[in-house]
Input
Amino acid sequence: MTTVAAYAAPAAKAPLERTTIERRAVREHDVLIDIKFAGICHSDIHQVREGWGEAIFPMVPGHEIAGIVSEVGPGVTKYAVGDRVGVGCMVDSCRECDNCKAGLEQYCTGGNVMTYNGIGKDGEPTHGGYSEKIVVDENFVVGIPEGLALDEAAPLLCAGVTTYSPLRHWNAGPGKKVAVLGMGGLGHLAVKLAHAMGAEVTVLSQSLRKKDDGLKLGADHYYATSDPATFQELAGTFDLIVSTVSAPLDFGAYLGLLRTDGALVNVGAPEEPISLNLFSVIDGRKTLAGSSIGGIRETQEMLDFCAEHGIGAEIELIAASEINEAYERVLASDVRYRFVIDTATI
Output
């Protein structure tokens, strides 16, 4: 066991505070990682505040982890001391179900183990990346290519793969019109990725205040959803809409922007249930879908793609003492576009 410093929420809705946690000793196939940077994801806030249901406290959030390998178990073959690596939202899965065997560990039917707010196979609660070090099975670690700065790579471990996965699955590319709904931590990466894939990219945002950013990041068009004319002008336009918004939406209105056989895919998860008139999908054979993170293989594929195309997150680097303030700023949409904690400050 190793004692490391961390930032944890002691109880639901409580401010995060500095503490210490125990990391397990390195096992046969484990990798010990010195965490250099940890991204702040909106889902961290949902879970600290129990917006998605009962949670485990004290909680050390963080599933956008970038660091350097400092020790490996005797059976490790994929990584060596000094390697640049990342850890995303999962640290284990059943490894036996059809989804796991297909590289879709994010949909593990036996139950995957989340990086934090989860229970490991040893029965112990998991703690995430707002900490100095983490021990993870090598099969749930990915390599960060040399072309990516570690601080800009950290958010790719959740926000990056969460947007990459549906873009790939629904075949974003040349000849496809893709809309990104929401221009935040996920949305700005969806714009970069869809543009790099060759799609024609439109941003749909509440206002035009981030329009210059959107166009600079690769969007071809930018519309305000607060303007009713947007829904008239863009009716029947898109092959794919990726919604990164975690607030309730008028799904009927957005489904009306799809072409026949188009898909509206949600990666943002509102805390409230939605209602829907089914004629919104019946008319035009449209799909209202959801997509979770990505499997380990796809996460590595995404990182390699980002390195090839020079894609990193747009970040604001903060000290650990600023985490609580950063949470409030995320809720106020006051970040461009992802907070990343310099874990040397923990």
Notes: The longest helix spans residues 296-309. The first strand starts at residue 2 and ends at 8. The mean pLDDT is 97. DSSP finds eleven helices and 17 strands in the chain.
